[in-house]
Amino acid sequence: MNLSIPLLGACLLAASTALYAQAPQTDAGKGQRFDCSKAKDPTRCEERREKMKAARGKAREACEGKQGDAHRDCMRHEMCAQAKDPAKCEARAKEAQQRRQQKK
Question: Domain spans of the chain?
Fold first, then answer.
């Protein structure tokens, strides 16, 4: 009797940790940040998403050989070069980078 209570507690603890180890899937496991089916104009949302994927692919190709800070700066520069207002994009990206560094 004395051994069964701690053993039961240990089993329950082990079983409960397995439940929390599973990551929740968002957007049906597609790995998407935003669900275009819930947008006001789903076709426009999908077009914008495809445009961003293409821009990211071009930036990734341009910055292929770089690593670390140089790669990050290159990606920011290439992505902002394709924006409507590159200067505003650069400023916003630098502010976001500073906020992320302050959180660390």
Answer: 35-104
